[in-house]
## 1
Amino acid sequence: MAPSEPPHSSFRAFVETLRSDGDIIEIDRSIDPHLECGAIIRKVCETNDKAPLFTNLKNAKSGFFDILGAPGSLRPKPQERFGRLARHLGMPATSSLRQISEELLKDAEKEGIEPKKVATGPRKEHVLKKGEFDITQWAAPLLHQDDGGKYLQTYGINIATTPDGSWTNWSVNRAQVHGKDSLVVYVAEPQHIWQVHEMWKKEGKDMPFAIAFGVPPPAVLASSMALPENMSEGAFIGAQLGSPLEVVKCETNDILVPATSEIVLEGVLSITETAPEGPFGEMHNYLYPGETHERPVFHVHAVTHRDNAILPVSNCGRITDETHTIFGLIKGGEMRQIAKRRGLPVLDIAVCLETQTTWAAVSIDTARVRELGWNSEKLREEVGEAIYSEKPAAPFHRLILCGPDIDIYDFQDVMFAYSTRCRPSADETVFKGKRAFVKSPLRDDSSGKVVDDALLPAEYTHGQNWKRADFNESFPESVKEKVKSEWESMGFKKWS
């Protein structure tokens, strides 16, 4: 039976849609949140399998809580590869990454619809005040054996407001269990949450703070985007939904959180007290045992949650998990916007997930390049200087320029162009002194970033003068159709 609500309206509706799609495996046997749960999620991400829903976690009280792992990773069916991500925006499961990206950017250009404050909501079905809960006894998962502790917050949204109330920031930052009523939150310069925290330091007051888990899926995307200056994350979600997002006030501070949130922790983020945070397995598939940093302590004053609450969990590491899919979706679109704003001869930009989202392929409008009279060096310089100078490109150290015959969303196609058309050194330009990504294993590398030209010389003069010796280009349509129609009857596996 189809879900009664669209998947992007609430996290509960999203879960029901995944279940209807056949994209969930419900695991009702007893699973230990100490590493076993994390191991299952990790293997799911590395094999693009169905999302695991753990309904019988050791130490979990009845109704609090289940865990949904891999909420934004890839699906096993090629035609629905990005289906889980598409469902975040209420799109068909067969949507391509480009279609999802276009929808996301289109919503960001709409007029925002500010949230609507309501008196109550499902997230207040259970209210626990300080002294009535002990976070250390919850089924918070230890996701990698060398993590610094149990991580409760990996896919929720952190919410903070400036002292004057003029700006409310939503972000996705991990948080580690610290004590029975406290967590340590990853807050680092120059994040927006860090900027708001600094404002509260100047006021000499701890920062009112909340973490909402299991929020409407567009909220996670909005919290990871560089939205227009005049649009809040809540207003973006309203524009995406076509109606105001309902929010309710916290029990112990004035922070407003989505009314349908599965779980909410509220209190204050200390401006003076810190504790060691980390290490944690990162999106580039590295973990540095023993590496910790002092981060602010979140003192939890109250917990509210729904009946049969579900905690979404992202377990970072080797491709492909949410840190790759969502990061790649958003950053590819933002870099495409930069190219458009700068007037570059760029048709599209796609992040190469297979590189742990450190490379991006750039589709070049070669006809316009010829009109401009640019050579390879000029094109590399213009593209690299424009893209690498802005924040969205910080995580990337290689841009591969491709002609229009290359499908930049097909990594094999990109590698075909890169390996057969780009001459080492001769077709490369290195850019030094550009913004680095704080979580990259190459963050201290001084060798810089590179733009590789994978266009053939003819594309700068008169256009394509070759054909490819592959199935699509080397046979007439009649022959291809006959082969396709008889493929399985000849004994081959299903056509793809």
## 2
Amino acid sequence: MPSFTDDILLLRHLKTGDPRAFETFFQKYRMAAMVTAMAILNSEAAAKDLVQEFFTDFWQKRLYRYVNRSLHGFVVQAVKNKCINQLSKEDTRRRRMQAMTLFDEGITWPDNRLERQELRSEVSGLLQRVLSPVTLKVVQLAYMDGKSRKEIAAEMGTSPNTVRNQLVQGLKILRKNIRRS
């Protein structure tokens, strides 16, 4: 087995798809990836998951094809970007959950399953009555299916900005109609 101490040689072997080169790459850079992820995420478990996902993607999606500078720099930057994306998704989910508290205003949540089912049906009916079909679909994909704006935009063939505008408009309409009820 060749020694991959030199990054240029290691990268050359990675680009040929050599699994031994990937093993060497993993052993050489996993600590740098972990330190970077831990510094940003402040959670060892989250950092481990993210680093594992990075290395899996690096090999399966053949991300080594895009390395045009040092491997160390690539690893650190790619892990930083994944961390930032993860934090952004968590922030988006948190904001969506806060936005959903608008349903809590004036509503006493039922204790039994039948009452919850009835309330769910009433909320669904309200959504269908006051929102246009397109806005309804956007709201359902975002808040009920938990999809991101980009995912919704791709599914609906529109831009993320249009999705954002539809969500803002839909929430305004819902707030107004909930206050009336």
